Amino acid sequence: QVQLEESGPGLVKPSETLSLTCTVSGGSISSYYWSWIRQPPGKGLEWIGYIYYSGSTNYNPSLKSRLTISVDTSKNEFSLKLSSVTAADTAVYYCARVRVVPAALLLDPWGQGTLVTVSS
Amino acid sequence: DIQMTQSPSSLSASIGDRVTITCRASQGISSSLAWFQHKPGKAPKSLIYAASTLQSGVPSKFSGSGFGTDFTLTISSLQPEDFATYYCQQYNSYPWTFGQGTKVEIK
């Protein structure tokens, strides 16, 4: 059973780069899309973007200018980098697998999430 | 972006109640809709995709319906483990967007 776990610093200073890694266990990262989603405190979920194991990406336009998602198949992990962060980027960040099923794209499973706070 | 609006934002219900949550899209999304259950500190769990297809392992007390702009998630008989926040999500067009969530609490 595939499991995902987010890791990275819990505190990032304003204007710096937020970096997170999602480690995939119990299955291969190959042949799937992998996604990042976030949830600011007290707010709803926001889709950040996804990457295919081969490296092709699709980003939310609202974050595209600051965002890089990459994949390392040798380590079975993928990563997120968000530059020039502000307090508005404070959120719980989740990673998830994207399953392609007939007529659907399904975020399943998800990691438990990691809180990243942007503050000096 | 497609806006997803859930109602109600919260509800109180008793064990055994039938609960219905509504999700409305700002434009037609065919049946490209998923529902998730989220409990505090846990990973969100996929319940339904393609508006009405139950994810493997999800009990049949959960059901989904709808097409176009209006969708519903129904829990036929609420159990203690069902108290959580539920989200809808459209994947018809990018960027994917979520509803604001419906918190189901114990009455």
Task: Describe what you observe in this structure.
The complex is a heterodimer of chains A (120) and B (107). Chain A has no helices and 11 strands. In chain A, strands 2, 4, 5, 6, 9, 10 and 11 form a 7-stranded mixed beta sheet that branches. In chain A, strands 1-3-8-7 form a 4-stranded antiparallel beta sheet, with no helix packed on it. Chain A has strands at residues 3-7, 11-12, 18-25, 33-39, 46-52, 57-59, 67-72, 77-82, 91-101, 104-110, 114-118. Chain B is an all-beta fold and 107 residues long. In chain B, 0% of the residues lie in helices and 50% in strands. In chain B, strands 2, 4, 5, 6, 9, 10 and 11 form a 7-stranded mixed beta sheet that branches. The mean pLDDT of chain B is 96. Chain A binds chain B through residues 4, 43-47, 58, 60-62, 94, 96, 101-113, and chain B through 31-32, 34, 36, 41-46, 49-50, 53, 55, 87, 89, 91, 94-101.
